[in-house]
Design brief:
Blueprint: H1 10-20, E1 38-39, E2 43-45, H2 54-70, E3 73-77, H3 83-97, H4 101-106, H5 109-112, E4 114-116, E5 131-136, H6 151-177, E6 194-200, E7 210-215, E8 221-226, E9 232-236, E10 239-243, E11 250-254, H7 256-261, E12 271-274, E13 281-288, E14 295-296, E15 308-309, H8 310-324
Helix pairs in contact: 2-6, 3-6
Keywords: Dioxygenase, Iron, Metal-binding, Oxidoreductase
Catalytic activity: gibberellin A1 + 2-oxoglutarate + O2 = gibberellin A8 + succinate + CO2
InterPro entries: DIOX_N, IPNS-like_FE2OG_OXY, IPNS-like_sf, Iron_ascorbate_oxido_reductase, Oxoglu/Fe-dep_dioxygenase_dom
Amino acid sequence: MYASSPNPPLLANYAQLVCRSAEALGDVDHKAVVVMEECELPLIDLGGLRNGNEAEKAACVAAICKASSEWGFFQVVNHGISLDLLRLMRREQKKLFESSFEKKSTCGLLNNSYRWGNQTATNPKQLSWSEAFHVPLIKISEEACYGEFYSLRGVMEEYAGEMQRLAKKLASVLVSNMGEGKEVDKTCDESTCFLRLNRYPVCPYAPEVYGLVPHTDSDFLTILHQDEVGGLQLMKDSKWVAVKPNQDALIVNIGDLFQAWSNDIYKSVEHKVMVNSKVERYSIAYFLCPSGDSVISSYKEPAVYKKFTFGEYRSQIQQDVKKTGQKVGLPRFLNWNHQTP
């Protein structure tokens, strides 16, 4: 069945997890629909960073830092990335995902980076109804990664370069606001960063099933290019809110590393993706990451978190996921000597 279908065996996986949880599939309530408040993320025009007007530049910087502190998420327009490039990347992404599950899972495409579902899930609430290629930037120039999808290579190289440029510009704004002299460029380059191409297939159990389980990102910051299909939700004021799609904007969110570095000034906010019962959803995420031996420490004292390397952080996350099926993240690295004023 799955040999010619583009869909991974998510339905079978879901049924197995339900049985493993000692529940009958027919007893699961698929009728309850939660009415979700919809929000528009802060919208920031990045033209202010490059038009030479100091007042507009200062206002833009202030808006970026405020949104990073109050929301942990914001969206940007006039970001300098061609809309034609974004559309072309989306077309190539769809062509890739429309190939059969067998081809995607066995042909070693994009550095053998294909993933689906959640292989560590022990119950239905830990299942991500999605498939993805999580590709290290250092591999995207290699012809051998693409197979018959040779037209993807040039587009993906250009797309990754543009996303890297934008991510470093935004990171520099946030670092400068902290009064830090460190340069993100020195620790985040094509050898450390990633692109993740996502597809969320139609799900008969929507909207109860996660497309991507609740989590925070384990990087400095993430840039997301999504389609017109909604599904992204984030935690705001202790409740989930749905993000209204805006095809003209890119979404930026703060990761765990910036939260630790900024001593909780910038917020790495929990978010998730909910699936749709009628239409599939596509998105592409760029992750700005440092090298594994990069030390993450607070820029001021008293420090909320202990010093740790990115490698140690990833290792702890993997251990927690293996044991519990879930990420714990920054709470593992709290500095218990820190006294809240």
